[in-house]
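Q: Convert this sequence to structure tokens.
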Amino acid sequence: MSHAPAGNIRNFSIIAHIDHGKSTLADRILEVTGAVDARKHRPQLLDKMELERERGITIKAQAVRVEYRARDGETYRLNLIDTPGHVDFTYEVSRSLAACDGALLLVDASQGVEAQTLANTYLAIEDGLELIPALNKVDLPGAEPEQVAGQIAELLGEDPEATLRISAKTGEGVEDLLEAIVQKIPPPQGDTEAPPRALIFDSEFDQYRGVVAYVRVVDGEFKKNDPIVAMQNGTEADIDDIGFFGPDMTPVESLKAGEVGYVITGIKEVSQLRVGDTLTHRRNRAEEALPGYREVKPMVFCGLFPVNSEAYEELRDALEKLALNDAALVYEPESSQALGFGFRCGFLGLLHMDIVRERLEREYDLELLATTPTVEYEVILTDRTVHEVHSPVDMPDRARIDEIREPYIRATVLCPKDYVGPVMELCQDRRGDHVALNYLSAERVQIQYDLPLAEIVLDFFDQLKSKTKGYASLDYELIGLRESDLVKLDILLAGDMVDALSMIVHKDKAYNAGRAMTERLRKQIPRQQFEVAIQASIGTKIIARESVKAVRKDVIAKCYGGDITRKRKLLEKQKEGKKRMKQVGRIEVPQEAFLSVLEIGSE
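A:
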């Protein structure tokens, strides 16, 4: 394929909330431009992972190049960079947008503007992208195009009539959309003569060829066999293969400024070619890297243990392979007395955690147990040294702690005005600080709260959805660490601490959490020959206790009649025996008990 003149290239992405029809629109664009043979077509063509197709969400960004013959007779080369829509993948979205010159703002005509759309729109505006608003699903009976067009107009400050109305399912209005892309989105600005620079906006791992880096060439030209270097990481390599996605990998001799494609170098680790890094020529080096690179930091941590302890090696191999595809996944070995050997893993957020766990179970056929998710705390000791704590087990002794800081987020919730009360109540209950409340229209309200990340990792999103009948949408960003009054809550079984059940909670909530945990355990632990005390403690102070009653043999069954003293003697003897047994008895806790307690905690 020859190089199109730079003036005829358009790089764009689609911004949309989950389930607003982004992948379906990408399918239609591929169909209308004839990029995909009708016989090979299947829905959600760009979502390659089985899990993505099943859940209807985009997890990995994809890029595809299509040729479009416009009404002015010119042929334009359109590069569509498909981005994930979920809050956990904001960094990937921001890098994908940095590779574009414009974006389609796609809004479901029946749902209206959602929090995610807002967040990504602001990202696009910050990057200076040209936005084209479009209403999708106008063929649905519940669609309210006029009202939603008004919302979009308020968001962008444009005329509601300028919003295109399309249906990605039927294909109605898609040609007009392509015309708008050609007319409104500017061609890429890049210097073809300058030292070559390319932005890596995504990467994936191919087990035969190593890392495939998705790049947008900003300046200059990259050719096959060129020696290249990643400017932030310092990784050096040679280009084994270079090409574009159409939508299958299509090799070419070179990629010029403004073009989007892939580079294969034979490097075997995704972490060496990080998303957001800049590639340049080793001999003809660029002076400065492209902006916006940062290390992706995991936010949520949890322990993953194989249910069958023999599967530890398999879990390690599976994590190694998965980490090749996912540079944001971090893991280290961990052992627990209760659960055996496993790994402490770090994730971008809850959805990311859920997806990694599901991929491990599906693709590698493992049965896993995940402990309650926690966040990273910063502990400042009395000698002013700072420790990062990812797991309750690592928490230093209380006497040595001066203060504990936990990560806070700024949460933005969009919901109909009828649900403002329940949403505010939920946020207050989760130790939230109210920041702002704005009416976006007569019906929709934007509520902002500062919340501790630890409070939203468990079931905040589910609660939010149920309290607003599914109408609320949530977006959040990290705003830093704040000092909090936190304590480590330990669970003791017959006086022995169970490490897997320890958790870090706010002091005000410790009593209720301890009570709930001891009650749940009492129902799960089978009765022993002696009484078992289940206690929740903070340091040495016991705050809740339940007992599992002993199983008793009926020792007085053989007494017919006779004096009460004979029965008393037998009962006293039994009591002595129980006491002795309690001193030497070891309590056996079945794996199921841990499973059920931990699972309930994570629901």
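The two ends are 52 Å apart (CA to CA).
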